[in-house]
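Example record for the data management plan.
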Amino acid sequence: MFYYYFIIAIQVFCFYHIFKNRNPFYWYLIILFVPLIGAIIYMFQYVFNKQDKDKVQDSITNAVNPTKKTRDLEKQLEFSDTYANRIALADSYYQNKNFVSAISNYKKSLEDTVQDDFYAQQQLVLSYYQLHNYEKTIEHAEKIQQKPEFKGSKQQFCYGMALKEVGETEKAEFQLKQIDRPYSNYSERLELAKLYLETDRINVGKTLLDEISAESKNMTEPNRRIYRNTILEVERLLSSL
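Corresponding structural encoding:
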């Protein structure tokens, strides 16, 4: 049913666009008799600008062949070994979950002392955390923890979780509490609640779980889908207390 209304909406939009811009009449027939494909072709022809088209084309290419972008960036770096090209390649490795190669290139970029190393350090925190290398996660997080952008960031969360994994629970709690913000960071706050429970602070942990549970009742449907597993875990923990 949703698919049907979605097609109708696209057709209506295209018909209006044809009328408003006085585009050829045959587009009415194409979109009417070949609804989705016709509408997509029309929008590529008349609605999207070049930048939009390039973005869509890149998305399709990456979905079909996710390593093509990385190979192109490797060739680009071979041709011109610049900071920007190396960071772009490292980001591509990271996006494809090749964290070892990402780390290698982020660390290589640190050799360029002219550039601000903050972004590379941020990405090293995330990359090492994905590899469960908690010591390195902590090492690189501590190099940027004084930056204002660090507070409330993914990197601070990874830092807190890494500290927890190496047994530094008090330090871990301090970091994770910086991310405890109402109506946001649900997954991160769940981990903080688990830390409370694991360190026998049942009442504090339950209070935080109750807060997340109450907030979830006011979520939009898209957010409920995004955080579905988190909500289920919160409810499971509450029912076990």
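Summary line stored alongside the record: The chain has 15 helices and no strands.
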